[in-house]
C-alpha cells in the first residue's frame, strides 16, 4: 500500500473490505475490471475535466506523478502561479491531487476546485458524496500548510441545452461548499484516520464483508471470495430482498442461505414465493389465461422496436443536455398478421452528426398508424420518443402516438404470468431468452450488451481510426440490435405457442 488517494478513500467509505482487497489481492484484479458502461463513465469524467479547465485559461498543468509532481507543485506554490491543474501533495500516508488550485492574491490564499462529471452537486450530507471528496483534499492541504480560502465543486448544469457551440459558462455550475466542509471537517478527519488504520493493516480478517445481510444488487464481485459458503444462486437473489432487510437477516441468522432451505411457512412476497416455489419444484408457473388475455389485446401489425443510444456528459449536438441519450440506432421487426412473415427494418447513424432527423424519418417509413409497438422495459423507449419529440416538434405527434401504442413484453414476466426456475428471479431479456428460445443466443455476437454498443458507436463510429474499423463496428452494431428485436419476436412467438 503506497498512499491513500482520494479515490481509495472514497472506495474505503463505500466498503472498507473491498478497498482493502483491491490493494492487497492482485489475484482478484479481474474481479475489479470495469464494464464497458463504467469505462464510458470514466471517459466522460475525464472529458468533463478537460472542458472545465477552460474556465481557467491561465491554468498550468502538472503532468508528472508522485514525488516529481509534489516538487513541481512546491515550485508553483512558491511562484504563486495564478492557476495550477493537478497540484499534488503527499502528507504521511495521504496523497491529494487537486483538479484546480487558484491563487487569490487579494487574500494571499488558495481556492480549491474539484471537478465532477455529474450534473448535480450530489450531496447526501454524510459520507461518500462530492463534499466529502473535496473535504479530503481540504484536510490534506490544510495540514500540509497551504492556506485555503474557498472550496468549490464544479459540476455540469443539468438544465443546460447546447446551442451551435458549447458555452462553458452555462455548461458548468460552480458551488461554493466551504461552509459545508468546515462543518464536517472533524468527522472527515476521523474517517481518514479510520481509513489509514484499516488500509495499512495486513490481516484480511480484520475487515468484515457485511453484504451477507444485503441483496445481490449491493454485492461487489468479490462477495463469493469472502463468503464461499453461500451458493452461487442464493437467498440474496430473491426478488427485492434487499428491501426487506429484516427477512434477509432472519434467514441468514437461522443459517438458511440456499433457496431450497426456506421453510414453506416463511413470510415472503408473492413474487419471492413464486421464485422460491419454482426453484424448489423446478416446475415453471404459467398463467395461460392471463398471458392469453394480454397477448390477445395486442393489435396487428406488431412492431418489435429497440433503440441503442449514447448519453455523453458533454452534449455532442445542438439541442441536447448533459447526459441526454442520443438515439443513434433502431431495429424493428414487423409482423403484419398472425400468419404473416416477419419483416426487418433498421437504422444506424454512421456520420458524425445529430442522428435525430435521420432516425425519425426512418421510423416514419417503417411504422404505420396502427398496431402495437412492442418493447422490453417501456420507460426507456418512451422517454427516448418523448425526447425525440422535443428535439423535433414537427414529429412530436407521430412519436407520442408511438408511445400510446407501446406494449411492454417484459410485463408478462414482471407480472408473474410466467415464472421459470432458470429466470432466477430476473425479468431481463438476457435471462428470459435462453430459457424460452435456447437456440438463440447473444454469445456469438461481437457486441453483446447495451454498454458495449454505446462505447462502440462513440469510439469506433464517430471517432473511428479507419473506414475498415467503422464498417466492421457498424456490422456488429446492426447484428446486436437485430438480435434484441428478433429475440422479442421469438419470445412472443414462444408465448403464443404456450397459450
Ligand atoms: S460484497 Fe459487499 S461488503 Fe463484501 S466486499 Fe463487496 S461491497 Fe464489501
Could you please describe the fold and organization of this structure?
The strands form three sheets. Strands 1-2-3-4-5-6 form a six-stranded mixed sheet, sandwiched between helices. Strands 10-9-8-11-12 form a five-stranded mixed sheet, sandwiched between helices. Strands 7-13 form a two-stranded antiparallel sheet. Helix content is 43%, strand content 16%. The protein folds into three domains: 6-204, Lambda Exonuclease, Chain A (Alpha-Beta Complex); 210-283, no CATH class; 290-498, Nucleotidyltransferase, domain 5. The chain has helices spanning 6-14, 16-24, 36-53, 66-78, 130-144, 168-171, 178-199, 223-226, 245-253, 270-281, 288-296, 356-366, 378-391, 396-404, 411-414, 429-436, 450-462, 467-498; strands at residues 60-61, 83-91, 94-104, 109-115, 148-156, 172-176, 285-286, 302-310, 326-335, 342-348, 373-375, 406-408, 418-419. Strand 9 (326-335) and strand 10 (342-348) form a beta hairpin. The termini are far apart. By secondary structure, the protein is α/β, with parallel strands linked by helices. The mean pLDDT is 94. It binds iron/sulfur cluster. Residues 15, 17-18, 209-211, 219-220, 222-223, 226 line the site of iron/sulfur cluster (SF4).
Write the layout of secondary structure elements.
Elements: H1 6-14, H2 16-24, H3 36-53, E1 60-61, H4 66-78, E2 83-91, E3 94-104, E4 109-115, H5 130-144, E5 148-156, H6 168-171, E6 172-176, H7 178-199, H8 223-226, H9 245-253, H10 270-281, E7 285-286, H11 288-296, E8 302-310, E9 326-335, E10 342-348, H12 356-366, E11 373-375, H13 378-391, H14 396-404, E12 406-408, H15 411-414, E13 418-419, H16 429-436, H17 450-462, H18 467-498
Parallel strand pairs: 1-2, 4-5, 8-11, 11-12
Antiparallel strand pairs: 2-3, 3-4, 5-6, 7-13, 8-9, 9-10
Helix pairs in contact: 1-2, 1-5, 3-17, 5-7, 11-18, 13-14, 16-18, 17-18
Residues 15, 17-18, 209-211, 219-220, 222-223, 226 line the site of iron/sulfur cluster (SF4).
Amino acid at each position: 500500500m503506497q498512499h491513500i488517494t482520494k479515490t481509495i478513500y472514497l472506495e474505503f467509505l463505500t466498503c472498507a473490505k473491498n478497498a482493502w482487497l483491491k490493494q492487497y489481492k492482485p489475484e482478484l484484479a479481474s474481479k475489479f475490471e470495469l464494464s464497458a458502461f463504467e469505462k464510458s463513465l470514466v471517459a466522460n469524467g475525464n472529458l468533463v475535466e478537460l472542458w472545465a479547465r477552460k474556465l481557467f485559461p491561465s491554468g498550468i498543468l502538472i503532468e508528472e506523478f508522485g514525488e516529481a509532481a509534489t516538487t513541481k507543485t512546491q515550485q508553483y506554490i512558491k511562484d504563486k502561479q495564478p492557476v495550477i491543474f493537478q497540484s499534488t501533495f503527499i502528507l504521511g500516508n495521504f496523497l491529494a491531487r487537486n483538479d484546480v488550485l487558484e491563487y487569490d492574491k487579494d487574500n494571499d490564499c488558495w481556492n480549491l476546485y474539484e471537478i465532477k462529471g455529474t450534473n448535480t452537486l450530489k450531496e447526501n450530507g454524510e459520507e461518500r458524496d462530492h463534499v466529502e471528496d473535496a473535504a479530503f483534499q481540504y484536510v490534506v492541504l490544510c495540514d500540509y500548510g497551504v492556506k485555503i480560502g474557498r472550496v468549490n465543486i464544479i459540476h455540469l448544469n443539468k438544465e443546460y441545452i447546447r446551442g451551435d457551440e458549447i458555452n462553458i459558462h452555462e455548461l458548468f455550475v460552480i458551488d461554493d461548499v466551504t461552509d459545508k466542509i468546515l462543518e464536517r471537517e472533524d468527522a472527515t478527519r476521523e474517517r481518514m484516520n479510520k481509513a489509514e488504520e484499516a488500509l495499512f493493516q495486513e490481516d484480511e480478517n480484520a475487515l468484515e464483508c457485511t453484504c451477507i445481510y444485503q441483496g445481490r444488487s449491493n454485492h461487489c464481485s468479490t462477495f463469493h471470495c469472502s463468503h464461499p459458503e453461500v451458493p452461487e444462486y442464493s437467498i440474496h437473489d430473491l426478488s427485492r430482498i434487499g428491501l426487506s432487510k429484516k427477512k434477509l437477516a432472519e434467514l441468514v441468522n437461522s443459517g438458511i442461505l440456499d433457496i431450497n432451505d426456506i421453510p414453506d411457512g416463511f413470510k415472503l412476497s408473492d413474487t419471492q414465493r413464486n421464485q422460491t416455489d419454482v426453484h424448489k419444484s423446478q416446475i415453471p408457473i404459467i398463467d395461460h389465461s392471463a398471458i392469453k388475455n394480454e397477448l390477445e389485446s395486442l393489435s396487428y401489425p406488431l412492431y418489435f422496436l429497440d433503440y441503442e443510444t449514447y448519453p455523453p456528459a458533454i452534449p455532442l449536438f445542438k439541442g441536447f443536455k448533459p447526459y441526454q441519450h442520443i438515439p443513434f440506432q433502431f431495429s424493428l421487426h414487423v409482423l403484419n398478421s398472425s400468419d404473416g412473415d416477419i419483416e426487418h427494418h433498421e437504422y444506424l447513424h454512421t456520420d458524425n452528426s445529430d442522428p435525430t432527423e435521420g432516425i425519425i424519418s426512418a421510423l416514419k417509413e417503417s411504422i404505420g398508424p396502427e398496431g402495437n409497438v412492442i418493447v422490453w422495459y417501456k420507460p426507456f423507449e418512451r422517454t427516448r420518443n418523448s425526447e425525440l419529440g422535443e428535439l423535433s416538434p414537427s414529429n412530436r405527434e407521430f412519436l407520442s402516438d408511438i408511445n400510446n401504442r407501446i406494449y411492454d413484453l417484459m410485463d408478462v414476466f414482471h407480472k408473474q404470468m410466467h415464472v421459470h426456475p432458470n429466470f432466477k428471479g430476473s425479468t431481463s431479456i438476457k435471462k428470459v431468452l435462453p430459457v424460452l428460445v435456447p437456440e438463440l443466443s447473444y454469445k456469438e455476437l461481437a457486441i453483446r450488451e447495451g454498454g458495449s454498443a454505446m462505447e462502440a458507436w462513440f469510439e469506433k463510429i464517430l471517432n473511428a481510426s479507419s473506414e475498415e474499423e467503422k464498417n466492421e463496428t457498424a456490422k456488429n452494431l446492426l447484428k446486436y440490435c437485430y438480435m434484441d428485436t428478433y429475440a422479442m419476436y421469438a419470445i412472443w412467438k414462444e408465448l403464443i405457442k404456450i397459450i
